[in-house]
Write a structure and sequence with these properties.
With about 300 residues, the protein is α/β, with parallel strands linked by helices. The protein has helices at about 40-50, 60-75, 110-125, 145-155, 165-175, 185-190, 200-210, 250-260, 265-280; strands at about 1-5, 10-15, 30-35, 55-60, 75-80, 90-95, 100-105, 130-135, 160-165, 180, 215-220, 225-230, 235-240, 300.
Length: about 300
């Protein structure tokens, strides 16, 4: 069982337009409404590949009710924590070349009691889990130490912990020594305070995170694929792809790594890159299914 914890879930509306022109009236050529938030995306991708997964998330307001309906329709198990305020709604505008403009709400103001309920639920679920995945931004009212606390509680319950977040929350989580972090390039820079301009720079920054106590670094590099760095070595995977929407690609990458269920780093990275590239080829925040993922097209080299 894999447990995902999403402190700031969202309803994600994606609009496809021929060209984004500020100040003009545009007509969308396509649209989607999906349950979103990084942890929710991970859960959706894992579920599509028949991996056992359960999503822990706060739920409030009309958007929260719609979120639960979408997750129920998708047959994804949920542990919903009732909160007073409504969860957020986000909008992504996608152009034909994959250029994506996102407008994200901050999210609800969550009370200390609601935060404790969320952490307590995650801790309970972690007792029977192989992994707990803490993902996404933090809404107002949740301290940057949230994911660090999640790491401590989940590990105490016997689960391994993966974290995918940014800013002060990422820095705090790294200090708690999670089993895996999944930064993108900007997050890698922020977490290490190192410049990352080349693949070698990215390797050095990832190795710095590992030396600080992180078990594994799975770094998304955009068009340059992904890096996997741990005590087994440094591995680089990539695959050529024509992008349609980059929203959720990093979440699919993390899901692919977890779905591989392999100790072999090459196999795990192939699945991670395969899932991420498949997500880029799909509209909106749609997560890839088995027919979408081409692991055989992913090239992995050890550096």
């Amino acid at each position: 069982m894999i447990i995902t914890v999403t402190p700031n879930p969202s309803l994600d509306r994606t609009l496809e337009v021929a060209h984004l022109a500020p100040g003009e009236v545009l007509r969308a050529s396509g649209h989607r409404v999906e349950a979103g938030g990084k942890g929710i995306n991970v859960a959706r991708a894992l579920h599509a590949h028949e991996r056992p997964v359960r999503a822990v998330l706060p739920v409030g307001g009309f958007e929260g009710r719609q979120m639960l309906r979408l997750l129920s329709d998708a047959a994804i198990e949920t542990i919903a924590i009732d909160i007073r305020d409504s969860i957020r709604a986000n909008v992504s505008v996608v152009e034909p070349d994959g250029t994506t403009t996102k407008i994200n709400e901050a999210g609800p103001a969550i009370t200390p009691d609601e935060v404790e309920d969320l952490l307590a639920a995650a801790e309970r679920e972690a007792r029977d889990a192989a992994w707990v995945v803490g993902s996404g931004s933090l809404p107002p009212g949740i301290a940057p130490s949230f994911f660090a606390e999640l790491v401590a509680r989940a590990r105490q319950a016997g689960a391994r912990v993966a974290v995918d977040t940014s800013g002060a929350a990422l820095v705090a989580a790294v200090a708690a020594h999670p089993d895996l972090v999944k930064p993108n390039l900007d997050e890698l820079v922020a977490a290490t305070q190192l410049p990352v301009r080349t693949l070698g720079d990215a390797v050095y920054a990832a190795q710095k995170l590992c030396s600080s106590g992180v078990g594994t670094v799975l770094a998304s590099l955009g068009a340059d694929g992904a890096l996997l760095v741990d005590d087994r070595g440094v591995f680089h995977g990539r695959r050529s792809v024509v992008p349609r929407s980059t929203v959720g690609a990093g979440d699919a990458t993390l899901a692919g790594y977890l779905a591989a269920e392999q100790d072999d780093p090459v196999t795990a990275l192939r699945h991670a890159v395969g899932f991420g590239c498949a997500a880029v080829e799909l509209p909106g925040t749609q997560m890839p299914g088995p027919r979408d993922v081409r692991v055989d097209l992913v090239d992995v080299t050890q550096r």
